[in-house]
Amino acid sequence: MREAADGAPNSRFEDAGEVRVERSRAWKERYPRVQVVAPQGSRAKIEKRVPVDTTAPDFGDPSVQFVTVPGTHDREAALVVRTPNGTTLVLNDLVGNIRDASGISGWLLRLAGFAGEATQIPRVVKLNLVKDANALRAQLLQWTEMDSLKRILVSHGEPIEANPRQTLRGLAESLA
């Protein structure tokens, strides 16, 4: 990726999800040309800490789609990135896939639902972010219909590359 004169990438997606506001502010201060993107439902809360440039980014590339995730009161976003090698789904706080958590922090991550033996929608996410489980379930099932889906990238844990469509089905079932 080319960089601008100030060292900032010319194009960068920075989802200022409610959990990552402090990091986004640091990026924006260091690289003022970086575009801060947030879901519409989180914009007011995030703007208390960092200016949000848009809630509907245009990446100038039809293979990159910004999605506001249904069922989250417009507070969670995802990216669908299509390439000749397959499709990647990028999720933020919606899914936990941490398998090797240990110690006190591991115990806390397991308690919150970000870590465990299986990929899951963390308990704290279900309580604080999921407002319409049926709408979220429908979106997860819609993503399973992408025949070209090769991987899911999550903010909390390892990439999901083995059976990503089945993983999404399992997550949808957990909301039933």
Your description of this structure?
With 176 residues, the protein is an alpha/beta fold. The chain folds into two domains: 1-57, no CATH class; 59-173, Ribonuclease Z/Hydroxyacylglutathione hydrolase-like (Metallo-beta-lactamase, Chain A). The chain has helices at residues 21-30, 43-47, 103-112, 123-128, 133-144, 164-173, and strands spanning 14-15, 36-37, 64-68, 77-83, 86-91, 96-97, 149-153, 156-157. It has a four-stranded mixed sheet, with no helix packed on it. A two-stranded parallel sheet has the order 1-2. Helix 5 runs antiparallel to helix 6. The radius of gyration is 16 Å and the shape is globular. The relative contact order is 0.13.
CATH class of the largest domain: Alpha Beta
- Full CATH superfamily name of the largest domain: Ribonuclease Z/Hydroxyacylglutathione hydrolase-like
Largest sheet report: 4 strands, mixed
Total of domains: 2
Average pLDDT works out at 87
Elements, N to C (H/E): EHEHEEEEHHHEEH
The low-pLDDT segments are 1-5, 10-14
Number of strands: 8
> Could you tell me how far the N terminus lies from the C terminus, measured between alpha carbons in angstroms?
42 Å
- Percent in helix: 25-40%
So what's the overall shape? globular
Tally of helical segments: 6
CATH architecture of the largest domain: 4-Layer Sandwich
Report a brief summary of the structure.
The protein is an alpha/beta fold.
